[in-house]
Request: fold
Amino acid sequence: MRIGALLVILALVAAPVAAARDCPKTTLADIEDEVMCPVCGTPLGLASEAPQAQHERAYIERLIAGCKSKDQVKQALVVEFGDSVLALPGDQGDDSFGDVLVYAVPALGIVLAAGGIAFAVVRWRRRDGGPGGRRGATPAGADGSRLEDDMERYDL
Amino acid sequence: MRRVLSPVPIAVICVLLGLFALLAYGLASNEPDRSVENALGRGETEAAPDLKLPKLGGGGDSSLAAYRGKVVVLNFWASWCEPCKAESPLLERWHRRMSSRNGTVLGVDMLDITGDAQKFIDEYDLSYPMLKDKDGHGIETFGVVQYPETFVIDAGGRITAVRRGPVDERFMRAEVEPLL
Reply:
């Protein structure tokens, strides 16, 4: 009888632990940077105190408590708010040209900026340091003799 | 002259002009649509745009056109919006008053979680029909810029008044009562 009671108690204690172990390890922090706060127009992670964002967070936490995976939580948000709730390019699943541009434009910008800086540096070095450049050249004619006089006068 | 026409200054000027154009476009596109207020200010009324949305809680779609021939108080709200809580009992009273006189309040729950909206409806015992604007289509269509907003639409489908913010008894008496 005692053994039976002990087994029942053990089963009751073990059941929630086993259920928790089966739940996917989804966290609010993991999701809130990948979804939008639709009213705020920013990712949820940036909309800290807005009441609409707090409601959305509470909804996500309820879903997590209900053992939903990250993808299931996102899907539930899409049902509530439409595809525009997804913050990451490509998440909306339509493989649109815009998703490619999101990555391509910054990369192109960085390449162009690096090229521009390199071009400017090369030009600057040629102009100031190369043969016939200004560095090291002394003024000629009247300017040159006036410079000599000034340097002698100030004992430089 | 040669220095001015060299490619680097031209490129810099082009980039700056592009940035200014982008800034101007951003500012212009974020300007709220005030055409309804402008028309009302001139003593004119605009036809209400058609709005087709799913019914909150399921049961298919419904549209504003389905209410043509009735006076409609179109109220945009959300469950987390505090002023919406304050005006809801008033809207419910007016809906009951209007329903026997060829009128209705029509709620549009904007960018909200359905469960939260249902709780709100139960808490304030709201009986008027509700639509769900899940992705902001209605907000764009009516140029809604804040929560709540209310548009009064006459039986001919024209917007006769608008309130950006919560309605009160005075607004309803002045703008809705004469249409019934």
About this structure: Chain B has six helices and eight strands. Residues 1-31 of chain B form one domain. The beta strands of chain B are 46-47, 52-54, 61-63, 71-77, 103-110, 130-133, 149-153, 158-164.
